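Weekly sync, protein design subgroup
Attendees: M.S., D.O., the rotation student, P.L. (late)

Item 1: inverse folding check
M.S. brought a backbone from last month's batch and wanted to see whether the design step gives back something sensible before we order anything. D.O. pointed out we never logged the input encoding, so this time it goes straight into the notes. Structure tokens as presented (271 positions):
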């Protein structure tokens, strides 16, 4: 691996992620709706992957470069499109409205610091395996194949889960009800579990040698922490906790790793 070329790439990818977030911030400030930063999350990962593809030509194996670029871009653009379609016609996300309501100082600058710049930094950190993989001279191997398989399983899982939820919500008869069908009966968060598989899969794509594997391990660990304990599962469940039927749903459905739903316990009173 050419360390100096990778260092240049790391700087350029940081610039790409920052540019996406700053452009999004400018648009959001004009529209007065900061929820569009969620769309920028997937776009920023795609931008990092494309910049890495362009800069790594002649340094890494072409097959590995192409695989990680396409995998990251497909995941990022699908996610961005899904979030854009889901949020069409809606106002501000309650999470951001609540955050800005308690902001110290100017709300827009507070959002810039705590949302846009933070997310840009996380994009850069989480995408380290994608950047490192593009500079590996080793050709396709078993770990690359396994990684792409895990990525494909994760992408399929979250895509199916998102589609099932969208269909459920489109039926007026389901208004106010908890989605507990399909993949949502096996895990309360098919989309987050899918992302979990995607990023561990992309990590394996960068494991052609043990040195790189150790250095970039921080990335899937950070993404896993975000999905389970950070802005993913934890915040969503806190928002859903008081909805009718959610406690019973949570009691029978896995919080993250898929498994068959538990059967309800029927207690009989002593006579």
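Designed sequence read out in the meeting:
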């Amino acid at each position: 691996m050419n360390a100096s070329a990778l260092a240049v790439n790391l700087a350029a990818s940081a610039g790409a992620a920052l540019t996406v977030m700053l452009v999004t911030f400018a648009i959001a400030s004009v529209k007065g709706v900061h929820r569009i930063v969620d769309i920028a999350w997937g776009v920023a990962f795609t931008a990092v992957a494309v910049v890495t593809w362009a800069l790594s030509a002649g340094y890494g194996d072409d097959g590995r470069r192409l695989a990680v670029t396409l995998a990251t871009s497909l995941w990022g653009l699908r996610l961005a499109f899904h979030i854009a379609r889901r949020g069409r016609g809606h106002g501000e996300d309650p999470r951001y409205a609540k955050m800005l309501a308690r902001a110290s100082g100017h709300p827009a600058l507070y959002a810039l610091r705590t949302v846009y710049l933070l997310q840009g930094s996380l994009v850069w950190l989480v995408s380290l395996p994608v950047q490192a993989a593009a500079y590996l001279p080793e050709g396709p191997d078993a770990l690359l194949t396994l990684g792409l398989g895990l990525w494909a399983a994760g992408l399929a899982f979250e895509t199916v889960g998102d589609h099932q939820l969208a269909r459920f919500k489109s039926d007026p008869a389901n208004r106010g009800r908890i989605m507990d069908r399909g993949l949502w009966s096996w895990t309360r968060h098919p989309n987050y579990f899918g992302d979990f598989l995607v990023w561990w899969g992309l990590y394996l794509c960068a494991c052609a040698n043990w040195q790189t594997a150790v250095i970039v391990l921080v990335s899937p660990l950070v993404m896993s922490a975000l999905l389970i304990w950070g802005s993913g599962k934890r915040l969503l469940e806190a928002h859903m906790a008081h909805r009718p039927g959610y406690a019973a749903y949570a009691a029978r459905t896995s919080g993250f790793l898929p498994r068959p739903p538990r059967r309800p316990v029927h207690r009989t009173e002593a006579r």
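Discussion: The chain has a mean pLDDT of 91. The first helix runs from residue 3 to 31.
Action: P.L. to compare against the previous round before Friday.
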